[in-house]
Amino acid sequence: MIKIGIVGVGTVGQSVANILEKNKKLISARAGKEITVVKGVVSDLSKKRDVNIPLFDDPNEILDDDSIDIVVELMGGTEKPFEIIKKALYKKKAVVTANKALLAYHRFDLQKIAGDIPIGYEASVAGGIPIINALKVGLSANEIMAIKGILNGTCNYMLTKMIEEGVNYDEVLKEAQELGYAEADPTFDVGGFDAAHKLLILSSIAYGIDAKPEDILIEGIEEIKKDDIEFAKEFGYSIKLLAIAKKNNGKIELRVHPALVNKDKMIAKIDGVMNGISVIGDCVGETLYYGPGAGGDATASAVISDIVEIVRAGQSSPMLGFKKPFLSENLTLVQKVDIHSEYYLRMFVNDEPGVLASIAEILGKNAISIETFLQRPSDNNKKATLLCATHECRERDILNAINDIESLPFVSAKVVMIRIDK
Amino acid sequence: MIKIGIVGVGTVGQSVANILEKNKKLISARAGKEITVVKGVVSDLSKKRDVNIPLFDDPNEILDDDSIDIVVELMGGTEKPFEIIKKALYKKKAVVTANKALLAYHRFDLQKIAGDIPIGYEASVAGGIPIINALKVGLSANEIMAIKGILNGTCNYMLTKMIEEGVNYDEVLKEAQELGYAEADPTFDVGGFDAAHKLLILSSIAYGIDAKPEDILIEGIEEIKKDDIEFAKEFGYSIKLLAIAKKNNGKIELRVHPALVNKDKMIAKIDGVMNGISVIGDCVGETLYYGPGAGGDATASAVISDIVEIVRAGQSSPMLGFKKPFLSENLTLVQKVDIHSEYYLRMFVNDEPGVLASIAEILGKNAISIETFLQRPSDNNKKATLLCATHECRERDILNAINDIESLPFVSAKVVMIRIDK
Questions:
Q1: How far apart are alpha carbons A234 and A419 in whole angstroms?
Q2: ipTM for the assembly
Q3: Which of A359, A391, B47, B118 has a CA that sits 20 to 30 A from residue A4's CA?
Q4: Which of B140, B282, B301 has its CB closest to that of A308?
Q5: Is B336 exposed, middle or buried (0-12, 13-18, 19+ CB in 10 A)?
Q6: Over 60: is that where the pLDDT of A325 sits?
């Protein structure tokens, strides 16, 4: 029998304990051994939990129990769980964690400390979708050309509502909060940080690259307005918060930002709170993985898959899926300003002669050529909104152009820029 | 160093050898050891192959070579590869195969013979999509409620063309043949047999059930006509050849047939030659896997993922993903006539009084209630086509009703029935 201790018995922890009980026969047949949760640790023992296991408030109750084989860490935070996992590894216990923030900062430390002791983290990215396993095992023959993920259900829910129902940002945020899809302080989700943590984990498996959140471009969805949605619809795009890792001339681009995506692409068809990841491999081409990115039972499904795999195989491969020499030999991050993309710009200007000419001149001077331009009659006949899409250019050039445009006397607001991912 | 021998160096075999060479550094870093293809076996040595390995025409050249660790079987057929794989296992060599026909008949024999020797078969279902691994590992916490797969690219290409461009069956078949998507004798694909082989493999992992092709309902796409396509479009459906495994009152339904699928479902959005599999688990809900179901490099991607996994872990779990007691304890197949579904019927009748009343009476008598009915004015004013969709009923009842309808004097052709998968 394999004994499990769960540190952090919240929504996911309760699901893990309850599913391991409910599907015990099935899971044992698959794992080849009986798996039993013997202890849970919580910070506040007075709070009621819907589980059938003894609860304690000291992690050492699990860490110092030599009969426990696998420690499941579901407590959240970064430094405290890092200490707990380190102690578990030191005690030669296998570890399963769903903690993306911890991994965003400490995944390489953990791989090093763990050595041959298994660490599973399937639940840390895209909830119930087995994307870690797909990257580590299913796509192991491939040089990964690109990963494009919808990794935050809150943002995807909000953007889907805005596009399908024309609801504006503030309204849909309020609705998402009422439904429990968004936190009271939604910054971590809508600002792109949650998706960035997950992207960093995926990119380490794909490229072996050790980047931290502060190293990469992260933009949220807060600036997206009805005008942008209408432009997207008119020109056949959807708007998604994309987490992108891709190879670009032997370097790696890592970025999280809203993007206009051609609506015929599979990734554009992932709507509502669902997550999806498109992976382009040099042999296989595109494969895509779709499913629930959050929720107690869905996340528990991923946690338990790690447990089953550890029971079956022990450590079948190093935590991040590769051994030395590191995949990342010679791979460096592309500087934020050296990204290449197509861009969409929204400009709010005084409606007067010469405006368009001045803007067009700035774009031309910065080596940016226009693909689509749209100006609609405005309600306010002294102001106009100009919308334009560019051909591919350098991020540095578009930022310079935006800077120049914003300093024009007749431009009366911040220029909004959204990258286009064709 | 791990040495590989490939039996059958056709399109996929050449891709396997060439990708293992091209991505050698990457794949070695992931597997933890260098992997080298040392020999290939072909039936006709005079045919030129684009590979850098010595070729032989006798499988024993590989089977009797004690330095070879893994035998990759890519020859096609059933009995001959079965003998070769048995000999490889007897010689304690790990095996990787892409042979779905072999597995459709002999997967349980192979699991028994293999014991602890690894057998990989990721490439046997849905080409480059790592669906075997998702079911064996990623979803191992779940009781699988249903699998719905688009597992045959030829059929999906043809149906997509018929729907998007209104091309008729014969025309699109010819086009698919010219593009190399369909064989000169297309029966194996368009008749649903290829999809059925793959479904049987998936259903064994999900349910541990040992069925053969002849045990299950298999219908192809040959009877689908423009009228059906138009009905589908009018009522918000797509038409897909679905391979379905699902639990139904403690029994298992296995069936392959064309189905009208609500066009808003993710599985309905998988178009062209691509494959996709929707899996419903009791904890995770729906996850979906999308990608290329065929092609040399895509299939080789799956073959190599098995090789890497074998090199990393050896046998991490039994071939079909479970140990005794078998999952299939107490699980039996639902009889074909006991399936429950909604149905669409197309009837070609004389346009005369009383026709509709007689048909409606037959449906009512068989406990079938109508959900949608459509009769359009006909070019031929003596004949009419009636299209109808039913509420859920038993297959037995709909078959009886069709039998009765076909015996009516004014019904002048076979009634066409397509199941509806809402």
A1: 17
A2: 0.96
A3: B118
A4: B140
A5: middle
A6: no
